[in-house]
Amino acid sequence: MAQYKRILLKLSGESLRGDSSNGIDPRILDNFAGEILPLFKKGLQIAIVIGGGNIFRGLEGKSKGFDRVQGDYMGMLATVINGMAMQSTFEQLNMPTHILSGIEINPLCDKMNRRHAIEMLEQGKIVIITGGTGNPFFTTDTAAALRAVEIKADVILKGTRVDGVYSDDPEKNPEAVKFDKISFDDVYKKKLKVMDMTAFTICYENNMPIIVFNMNKEKNLSKIILEGKNTGTLVKG
């Protein structure tokens, strides 16, 4: 039995580019779809928030001379492109999806609406939420935290390229220690980077658990959600 009924999966846009410098690698999409399929077949309600860094990041745009607000909106549009790619891949595996967005783009996707999102989840559709929060100056981590609280998700699953939260950057410090479980307060005290501060505060104030895990490890998502194995780091109050 799955320990969660409704989950929100946060994926970075960068993860979709695979070994390429930018763009979307269809093999990565296929891998993600294959990881999500067992959860879908078990009847879990699945929402996904996807970033756009494989196409355009607002902060990078600023460094290249773009206005920050304009750059952030360009990044939001990039997340919609990623969401549409995910939708196409999922539906080839007979996983019905519905795209919502922080910014309304007819006829591609509806404007994010909490009640509509919950209705789609309860109908058995995977809800892909794009467009960030719909506002500049906020990250897709913040969008994920906000949407998870809005749809009353049981947990946020943050898929990364590392297998949890460490005392230091494990890619730079081989002596960094991994935490299997850690409290919100200890994350603050130790100044650990789980999400950006705005996103993390939303989770903290709304008691929204976060599981940080490696999305690139085969069947890792199923191990955590369906088998209850602790292969990542659980952050909760």
How does this model look, in words?
The chain has 237 residues and is an alpha/beta fold. It has a single domain (6-194, 206-232), classed as Carbamate kinase. The chain is 38% helix and 19% strand. The protein has helices at residues 26-41, 58-63, 68-92, 114-122, 140-150, 184-190, 197-205, 220-225, and strands spanning 6-11, 45-50, 97-101, 110-111, 126-130, 155-160, 165-166, 178-179, 181-183, 210-214, 233-236. Helix 1 (26-41) crosses helix 3 (68-92) and helix 5 runs parallel beside helix 7 (197-205). It is globular, with a radius of gyration of 17 Å. It starts with 5 loop residues before the first strand and ends with a strand. The mean pLDDT is 93.
Task: Write the SSE topology.
Blueprint: E1 6-11, H1 26-41, E2 45-50, H2 58-63, H3 68-92, E3 97-101, E4 110-111, H4 114-122, E5 126-130, H5 140-150, E6 155-160, E7 165-166, E8 178-179, E9 181-183, H6 184-190, H7 197-205, E10 210-214, H8 220-225, E11 233-236
Parallel strand pairs: 1-2, 1-6, 2-5, 3-4, 3-5, 6-10, 9-11
Antiparallel strand pairs: 7-8, 10-11
